[in-house]
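Sharing a chain and its predicted structure for anyone who wants a worked example. Both blocks are below, sequence first, tokens second.
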Amino acid sequence: MLTRASAALLAALCLLAGTPHVKAAPTLLFDAATGKVFYAEDADRLWYPASLTKIMTAYLTFEALKRGEVTFETKLVSSENAAKEPPSKVGLPVGAEIPLELGLKALIVKSANDVAVMLAEAVGGSVPAFVERMNATARRLGMSRTHYVNPNGLPIEGQLTTARDLARLSQAVMRDFPEHAHYWAMPDMRIGKRRLHSHNPLLRKFEGADGIKTGFICDSGFNIVASATRDHARLVAIVLGSESAQDRNIRARSLLEHGFESRAWKLFFTSDTIATLPVSTTSDEVTSIRDQVTGWSCGGRATARARERARRREALQLRKQRLRQLREAKAAKAVAETPRSATAFPLPTARPR
């Protein structure tokens, strides 16, 4: 009979294999403490970071707090540049102010594009100066294929990253600023009378989930850097280029579940780390999956949604087939383990004389 752990591992593997995703979707699963890589796919392929950019914006804000350049009470002002940014946003009028700590929460939980600009202007003096600091920090952290143009990840030419570089950044923000870890784990926040919810449903539905950030634009698809901690072990899954939020969440959850189930032996047998993992590509071509994304704002949604429904039916049939095979295997094993009895195999009786 399958143990509970084995069943969970089998379910995770089925989801990994059965979840539809684009052909070249960068993926990375690693141990936060050691940097050991448990799974990698196209880790160096250039991708649009979307709102995962805000991890760097938060990192630089944490640095400024540590240096005393700003405090949690520093006022963030909604400038004209900030107010004109499109959603997701808080939507403050020009001239309105909020404390920096509230702005940090809005950046991480709400993924507010306007607040990202407000933080950049408060910390860096201006958006261009802040972006220079972003790129300098990326180079210092070894993010060799990352380039920033704005602090929020809205579509703009030249804003690029990779799964490996995001792993370096995620590891750095967890290592360098553990005192601020609670911000990444917040499932919601309040601003005034409004309650704003995180775009990361794993924070509410996955055991041990404690961060970090989601991101979406049409060209990048649905992205996530998801972390979770169980039994003092923290794993991070990076999934880029999913065609829907649901597929992104399923794949991240499956990777994390698989990682926790196999962590003990993978730490022993795995030698590749974020730094030593073989380079997956040196291509300078960035991938856009706009025509495959099911988001309402991306155009061609009817075709994309029809294709998505077909993929879901195929994935469902595949999972049903695997479950049927599992039941048949369990039934066969039960029959094989059933002890022979007198009822099943009666002894021959003596012939009458």
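Comments welcome. The longest helix spans residues 301-337.
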